[in-house]
Amino acid sequence: MEIARKVARLTQDLKYAAIDPSVLDRTKYLLLDYMGVAVRGSQTDSSHMIQRFLSANHDTSRGIPVIGTRMRAEASFAAMANGTGAHSLELDDVVNAASLHPAVTIIPAALSAGCLAGCSGRELLESIIAGYELAIKLGVALNPAAHYGRGFHPTATCGTFGAALAAAGILKLDADKIARALGIAGSQASGSMEFLTDGSFTKRFHAGWAAHAGLIAALLAREGFTGPTSIFEGRFGFLHAYSPVSDPDKVLAGWGEPYEVMKTSIKPHACCRYKQGPIDCILQIVRENRLTENDIEKVVVSVLKAGFAIVSEPREHKLNPRTIVDAQFSMPFGAAVAIIYGRAFLDQYCMENISSPRVRELMRRVICVENQEIEKEFPAKWPAQVEITTRDGRSFRSAVEHPKGDPENPLSWDEIIEKFFTLASSVLSKEQCGAVVDRVRAIEEEPNVNRLMEILAAG
What we know:
By secondary structure, the protein is of the alpha+beta class. It has 22 helices and 6 strands.
């Protein structure tokens, strides 16, 4: 049987009552994290451009809320706006083994579909779990390094299928139409890594377009539109076209054992996943030894090979970021602001710091290297090592096996709630923020997700 048809049947068999409570709790945790980044992400420059596009071309007085704004939009365009905004901060969740960000593609599509269908909180959880499972399994099956090597962004490509599956489940399509929806999604799965050349906004758009495309695929399939059910393993299918070393058997291997939501990481730093572990190491060294930028002669950062070309090369480009996107993908910039400010959150990723002589001078002292020692257990682990040498001849080293936010080194529920309030409170009232937290933590009791979406609209 074709993979898409097997996935369809597995999705139909996924029922709330049979899901382990720990999986449900983790899914709510990821949902709240998404909502925080979506609310705050609605305020970025790229999100304002999306909102102006919607205002110029659509009736924004009706439809589904664009999170964090007073705007509304047709379901697929609301998903696009909500996905693009949430991905703009580089604070959204990520999966190490697949090297992709699931929430920002799957959850916007699920919420839009849920508003159309008036689905319950339980149905929303089921759909999110299924969408994560497929997107992440596909990322692993492609071999992320090989997929990146062809210039593709796995969040965009794999996320389109996850979004389609989540939406199809909520719309209660039969097994054939779910498989057809996945086939339709395959003709929309795209996302070029060329944004790295000049710090363009297209990386952020990848998530929104995947959510948009996935929902459209499900809605078209509902009307009887067809897509190839051999989309994954076929001769011209996704796995063969998008990677030279893919393994189709990995898509279904270990499905739900455990569910991939349990392997998903949360970001504490507002930047690329490949920078998270090194920043943890830098912060540990600086705090424990009370170092300042003036104490430091050199910072040697061991960066995983899979991310080296993303955050470390070309060196002169990484030392001269021109946009926020450039900074989010520059290891020297992340190291410098972590040392100077003691953190690498949203306030540090700003144009003022990008042009700061203080930051730029310190960046020159950051050297990125490849290190075979940290490659041994990748991608099961995403280790990092940093060595800081001081001007008076001292040397300090730090290493992590699992960056903060990984399932093996998780943020607590309290920390996730704190992150949500930190992000959302500049847009929503304290009462709205509290209501969102309460609703998400008891989402299984929600009869209609429209009620939750209404709270997420700006006051």
